[in-house]
What does this fold into?
Amino acid sequence: MSNPMIQAASCYDVLCVSPVGLEESEEFALGMRDLRRRLPGARRWYVVADGQEPPMPTDFMAWSDAPFLLVILNPALLVSGNLEAELLALVDNAATDCVLPSDPRGFVPGVFIDYASRPGFDRFVARLAAGPRQMPFDGRSPWLYLVDRQTLATCAADVTSWHDLPAALGERAAIAGHAFVHSYSDYYDNDRAEMLRLIPDGVHTLLDIGGGAGNFGLAFMRERGGQATLLEQNRVMAAAARQKGLTVLEGDSRDITLTERYDCVSFLDVLEHIPDPLAALLKARQALKPGGYVLLSVPNVGHWSVVWDLLEGRFDYIPVGILCTTHVRFFSRSGLQTLLDDAGLSVERWENSASPLPEPLAAFLACRTAQGVALDLESLATDSFHVLACCPGGV
It folds into this structure.
């Protein structure tokens, strides 16, 4: 018999721990608005600010009298629209006291991740309904979970960290196979190691513009033995990069005067965030030594995920990806080539990051081709452009 409390409009409280480094970003602000929108049954939110320790499970019992508690240890999440309903339904099971959504670390077998937009994410989640609704807990580090108050009251004294609660419950914890979350908490942390091989051997000094926590610069120093400088406006990420041994210029790239000269300047998924990308490239040219290089990674607005969404009348900004909410410029291959030409940069290497079309869209487009519509299939199957360019004859 269904628990009547689960049918209540507001039957759970939320304990949310803010992330480090993202809390001041527009991307996270958008993500939090979407997260709250998709949790309409939340009665109260207890938000633990960055740098503060969350209350112990035993202490939290005095704060909240809700029948269920949703613990969000990583709020930098895209969440499925059915998250609330699925978690509440499964925790109503007599054998289940704690439920986590599935995520890229483990989900319904036989379904492949192919989302790159919000509608694509929703289409992916819909396919999960063909698999089991509940799966055994596999010991993964929890990002988010729902636990009932009675269980929390019983085990709180034996659990010293919210991260440990699902594992402490063992078989009484489960994974919701039809609900799904995707984390973007590593937004500033990617080392972009795949870009290193585009850098010529003669490059010994690198200026990485907008490189987050400096992991690409660190990878460059470790693999090439060179020196890397980071230009980053996020103060938390700039501080993290300094701790890793990088030289850091903190501030907006448009306002900082570059006095040093480098063998290479990199913009890895950065140009699309800059209102005047041409001015940014011209400034980068002035920071290059003679014969220096500019390394770029730029998302492709002609990717199939954007085209599919537009066919459905959608163009939804999200915290990450091609339609990231802080993107102010969008590029196709021809548009990026024109920008490089205007900046006086000559392409040395150009590689497309492949992302094949899903079969349903490929079949639909094949019919359009037969009717005389010219398609750029290479562009549709490219999620981003990786480019190494130089200044002919130096700066």
